Amino acid sequence: MAQLDRIIEILHRQRGQSLRLVGGKPIGLVVGGATRAVNSEPLSNTQVLGLLREIAPAGLRARVAPGGEVRFSYTAPSGQVAVELEPVNGNMAAAVRPSASANSEGTATEPSAPQPEPATPAGHDVTAAHAEMDRLLALLVETGGSDLHLRVGEPPVLRNDGQLVRLDEPSLERERLQTMLESIMPDKDRTKFADTGDADYAYELENVSRFRCNAALDRRGPMGVFRVIPNQIPTCEELDISKPVQNLCYLTKGLVLVTGPTGCGKSTTLAALVDLMNRERNDHILTIEDPIEFVHDSKQCLVTHRQVGMHTHSFRVGLRAALREDPDIVLVGELRDLETVETAIETAETGHLVFGTLHTTTAASTIDRIIDQFPPDRQAQIRVMLSESLRGVIAQILCRKVDGGRVAAREILLTSPAVSNLVREGKTFQIPSIIQTNRKIGMTTLNDSLVELVERNVIEPKEAYMKSVDKGGIQSALTAKGHSLSFLS
To answer: I need a surface site. Which of 108, 191, 375, 386 has the fewest CB within 10 A?
Structure first.
């Protein structure tokens, strides 16, 4: 397989006009009249010639030389292309264009004047597509939505207060959506998207907000989801984060976990806690995220943001490197795998305060999830390490408020000698009982938090029931408080 075959596949997949191979520059892909790099390193003239000799017909390879001018066709696995080579300003330059009728004889011809790139299809202009994305993202923020969904064959869809709302706009066409997504996508992520069909990145709309972006492919073509990251970081008081949880921010070492399903506000809660430390402490805070979400300017603390895939290879590699970067506090965007979890625990043990997230719904299931990632012969050791390093688990879920908007219900586990013993002995099923008997020091179960929100008339009893993990327990608790459960019948 020729080295250029993969790049030619990108050309065909992206429906590009041409590939540009020029000495002294990275390989360029021309799509919609705009050129973007598909690799990071510039090519030398020797590399340009080497790539072309590999695909040139045997009879023309001698013409692929410094100062040479030649045209030929090549059939790659993804389709046929026409190749034209000629020197430009002392460098070798080649254009590779999709072609169904290139010179299949492979004979050399005289070079002709450079042809202009085909006109961009109507409605797919990159500048217009970028403006359209900015308009939709600004509308998302203006309406108080949390997410924007873009799909082929559907109008733009906003998520407001947890509900999906279709905009009264035309359905998106495949080519138009592809251009819209790529118009705000960093070059490296365009290449990743073309290669894998997935890309995660951040985008900032000046004076509006930052957005966590995901581009992917489904059966109809490209799709995108954009999550609002507010420019204004909420305070712990605004998020109703209790004092016992805020006190975790003043620890010098240990592991603190914020957990919950996707879209439950974990990032927002962590941002508020980091902001509290940034204002109140005098330390070095290092965050490792994918992508960077809330941006913290250094206040009393020195804040360093690193993004996976851009500033470090992975969460695990970034966390390992953190030990050499003199941090006091480390935030790990996601504890995705065994190695990252193990490194986070070790980092907490070595005198650092580590914050991380998991997609678990209760404190007990969080501890079980961590331990179950390890082989059976290592689980006893990890229980001991976790019992010594874990300082707290905040498991939360978002509920719809009676008067609109959403509010977080939180289960809070704070490590005590009794909790450490249960973790060490593998008796995590007893943790809910420990939480219930330690309300005075700030612990609370998810059901207690939901019932409290119902009692304050913040959420409806039905909403509390739907969001509870323990349906029997919440039913009994609501009934005992005199709330009607007629919706169950």
So the answer is: 375
Question: Do both 298 and 410 map to the same domain?
Answer: yes
Q: Read off the pLDDT of residues 304-360 as tens digits, 9 standing for 90 and up.
A: 999 988 889 889 999 999 989 999 999 999 898 899 999 999 999 999 999 999 999
Q: What is the pLDDT of residues 407-435, one digit of tens each?
A: 999 999 999 999 999 999 999 999 999 99
Q: What is the CB neighbour count within 10 angstroms for residue 349? A: 16
Residues 277 and 404 in one domain: yes
Q: Is the pLDDT higher at 270 or at 22?
A: 270
Tell me which residue range forms the domain holding 156: 126-229
Q: Is the dihedral of CA 379, 381, 384, 389 positive or negative?
A: negative
What secondary structure does DSSP assign to 96-108, as a single string? EEE-SS--TT---
- CB count in 10 Å sphere of residue 369: 16
pTM of the model: 0.70
Residues 267 and 411 reside in one and the same domain: yes
Is there a single domain that holds both residue 67 and residue 158?
no
Rounded-to-integer distance, Cα 59 and Cα 57, Å: 5
CB 341 within 8 A of CB 240: no
